[in-house]
Write a structure and sequence with these properties.
3 helices
Length: 132
């Protein structure tokens, strides 16, 4: 099975919250124990804030997707190509996969690693799935 989602999905989904927690603790201890001012800790506060928004609105929704012979594996469940309703491009690297599983429509968001040749290009493996 080939992993088609980004290799950084695990990092973005699991490690980024740990980094955010460490930064929050540094900020908290900086203010309370070491009596540092906001001006001294701004170099930690603003990147932490940016990563927090990125994690809340993007990273925590990402899923790992694997490509099998005639199916995709998402969250340890096999989705046959026939059950895929659509693959929509959200941005250059993010895709939304909508599929049907036991009379319910589900949707997952995943990222791909490949850099597109042009901003509107789609990776070859996604074109093959769309054609089926």
């Amino acid at each position: 099975m080939k992993k088609i989602s980004s290799k950084t999905t695990y990092f973005r989904k699991k490690i980024v919250p740990i980094i955010l927690l460490i930064n929050a603790l540094i900020l908290l201890f900086g203010f309370i124990i070491f009596d540092l001012t906001f001006k001294n800790l701004a170099f930690i506060f603003f990147p932490t804030l940016i990563f927090l928004f990125a994690w809340v609105f993007n990273f925590r929704k990402l899923e790992e997707v694997y490509l099998g012979d005639k199916y995709l594996e998402i969250k340890n469940e096999k989705v046959l190509f026939e059950n895929i309703l659509s693959i929509d491009k959200i941005s250059s690297f993010r895709y939304e996969l909508t599929y049907q599983k036991t009379n319910t429509v589900k949707s997952v968001i995943f990222m791909v690693d490949s850099f597109p040749k042009y901003p509107t290009s789609t990776p070859d493996f996604l074109k093959e799935i769309k054609d089926l």
